[in-house]
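Possible regression after last week's pipeline update?

I re-ran a chain I had predicted before the update to compare outputs. Posting the input and the new output here so someone can diff against the archived version. Not blocking, just want to make sure nothing changed silently.
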Amino acid sequence: MSARPAPAPPPASPAPLLVVMGVAGSGKTTFGTALSRRLGVAFADADDFHGPANIAKMSAGVPLDDADRLPWLRAIAAWLAEHARTGGVVTCSALKRGYRDLFRERTPEVAFVHLHGDPEAVRRRVAARPGHFMPASLVDSQFQTLEPLGPDEHGIVLDLDAPVERLVDAYLAAASPGRTRP
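New output (post-update):
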């Protein structure tokens, strides 16, 4: 009598693929870095995907338009696709649903963590950031452009004023097994 092979173990759940979104100064990089460390996945900052023309435009206090953003968004979408199997956290303002849709075209499993809060607090944060190309004068235009996550978009909204470790804990609690995907 031959032994039957043991059933294969269930596949490991894939590592999360996340976009930390929000207006400039919401703490995306600080939170995203801390979250990627806790999750043990790669991290990328959307600022690193901007071309020189975009940086020059924002440095001059001129908001980007959709044509300016498209190559930047495509580069971030490519990064997400490259990390779909291994997981990753990337920051990106992702202010419009159309931008988030572009990410979902290549990586439908992507989820969003929206850091949201008071515009005045964000303006103070941006004004206090030394050497960054995004001036505080553009914060209002970002809030005007922001389209919050829709009820059909996988994601969670967190209060940007909370301490970073508490934000990470809140995300992890929302994403824990047995709960619906954040």
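Follow-up from reviewer: compared with the archived run. Confidence is low (pLDDT under 50) at residues 1-13. Marking as no regression found.
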